[in-house]
Specification:
Helix 11 packs antiparallel against helix 12 and helix 16 packs across helix 19. With about 800 residues, this protein is α+β, with helices and mostly antiparallel strands. Strands 2, 3, 4, 5, 8, 16 and 17 form a seven-stranded mixed beta sheet that branches. Strands 10-9-21-20-19 form a five-stranded antiparallel beta sheet, with helices on both faces. The protein has a three-stranded antiparallel beta sheet with strand order 1-6-7. Helices cover about 35% and strands about 20% of the residues. The chain is built from 24 helices and 31 strands. It starts with 11 loop residues before the first helix and ends in a 5-residue tail after the last strand. The chain is extended.
Length: about 800
Amino acid sequence: MADNIRPFQRPDGDRRANRTIFRRTMFLMVLFGVLIFLPLLWKLWTLQILDHEFYEQKAIEQQTGDKAVAAKRGVIYDSQGNILAISATVHDIILSPRDVGKLQADYAKKVETAKEKGKPYPNYPEPTNDFIAQGLSEILGTPKDDLLARLAKTNSAYEVVAKKTEEEVSSRVREFITENKLSPGIVVQPTTKRYYPYSTLAAQVIGFVNADNKGAYGLEAMYEEELSGEVGRVVTAKNGAGTELLYRYENYIDALDGYDLHLTLDATIQHYCEKALAEGIANADAQKGGFAIAMDPNTGAILGWANAPTYDLNSPSAIYDENLLKGLALLKEDASVSEEEYNAAVANARNTQWRNKAVNDTYEPGSTFKSVVLASALEAGVVNENDTFYCSGSVNIAGHTIRCHKRQGHGSQTLAEAVMNSCNPSFIAIGQKLGAETFYQYLRDFGFLNLTGIDMQGESGSVVWDEDFFVSEEGISSLATASFGQRLTVTPLQMLCATSAVVNGGHLLTPHVLDSIVDEEGTVIKHVETTEVRQVISEQTSERTRTILERVVSEGTGKNAYVAGYRIGGKTGTSQTLVAGEYVVSFLGFAPANDPKVIVLVALDSPKTASPESSYTPNGQFISGGGMAAPIAGQLLADILDHMGVEKQYTEGELSGVDTMVPKVTDFPLAEAERLLKKAGLTYRTVGDGTAVTDQIPAAGATVPGSSEIVLYLGGTKPDEAVTVPDVTGKAPQAAREALAKVGLYMKATGATGYYTSSTVAGSQSVAPGAQVALGTVVEVRFADNTIYD
């Protein structure tokens, strides 16, 4: 029976059920395992793959200290090596409220220990917020409440409370930190500050840097990459608490200092430009300032570049110009002006004084443009020196009457006389001889349809007519007005470059302000070469044009630019803007006329008029380039040529007015004194009846005009009392000389002195009327012909 018993066997259904349960169990375990580990795997993927660089950087930051080492910003020099912009070390004062809290906790712990164990108390004041705020406020001048507010930010480790402090202030802060054991709660961090030694000089050209020492404007921005250099680094190891482990690991990457810029500007010539512009603005009461540019016509190098209004490079956001300040003051007092409107006016005033008028803005050049038209017509062969032009006072073009500034007309004139008289009808005739197509081609050739390519920011382009319109029948009036420089607008720099091509032999050049870029070892990285765009006219045409333009100064509307000893050529300009009562008066001159070494463009924007419709100033002077801009431009040319060492060459008629030094004749017999004075080209009169000279006026070494009369005292001494300077403005030359001589003073005449007419009068004098001066003082008087109408 036992043999018939078989082992127990589960039914097949049970076995299948168990396997199903097992499989389900394994599936669920795997599923839950995956679900549990999937986020972990995703996190690992994120940490190791997706965010690898981020966490690697965090680890580096935690394990190492990385401090930037500032590069020294390059210096900007003028052409003579004078420093125009330089950086120096200053300091930011930084609060770390978080570290101040640790200092306070540490102080409290020391006090508690001292109480419990009888040890000495801390030998420095408790670093309370009030103590720190009070101390820094006294040093920095920052309100104490502002500092307390910063200290209240207990989670912050970086609160800048003063930027770019000078050494005097930062050293006091360091003493405060040391004496009161406030490190690292207060940090004195070195940085740099840009200094401009000449303040306002060439402000719109040089530009300035922003708070981060990055170029914000002008050459500072244009050459930011070259000036800024490359920042260096110091990398050190840190422990878990964030403390640097000195000497364990340190890697120093040198900063690469910025390159230096050497400019074509000459600080002395720049000063002359700014002085001339300021004088012109004051004399004309020019409401919108002006500009004065000096350039080497043979290289395109800018020698001086003045703008007004201007600003102080060391405080570029401050409004500097008096007229702008007066306008803002009036708005401030006006109850109807909102704060938003006032702030907008301040921003506009700031932008106005930053603008470089000669490159950012355009203007109607007026009659200065006639020099280009003249050269074009001579080159094209449509006119010559033998041609004549008749001016009746007006001309009718396409139904429009265009008048000459001389309403009664100039009558019949040669080509040179038409230029000297700046006759509009004559130049309309010259434009018509050229024809619209040829005229437009010369506009293109002289560079008026393109930018000059100057290495400055924000260069504007001219606004001229479309060529198709200009050469059509409808454009005939435009050709007429363009012929005398109206109703087209160009940048002053375009006008200067075009006229340079007129007088330098016909070469249109690219102007430039940068001369070279040099590294700290003196190696020239880049040198700017003279770049010729094209030859526009021939050498012969240029010479013929110069000859005629020289006569504009010697005999024509530019006679107020005359300076004895220098041959000056040029062209006056008076352009009426589209705003009633607003004019731009200018003079574009060059010298020496036979071999130009410098060319200048001086313009005064909106001389004050007697009324909106008037062409006269409130004191009765006719508003014109010849009367207002030419006198200062002529003197500017003379000053620049003197600075360059160009020798004066006097005509025989000018020699009598040449300055001479008074020789020493005291203690000499009268006969010997007479011989010495005659040799110097001077005359004399005597006071007293002695036989030897005991004193003289002026004293030996004084400079007086040739042929001046020297007073010799024969016995006794000259009076030592001061005399009062008379007002000679408005007087004719002889009357002015007599008025000064009457009180024992000498006159040095400048300006339109070589061509005295009944309308030549004194416009200004070097010593103010009413001033007390020594007997024998020389007073410089500038004369001008006030009847010039262009």
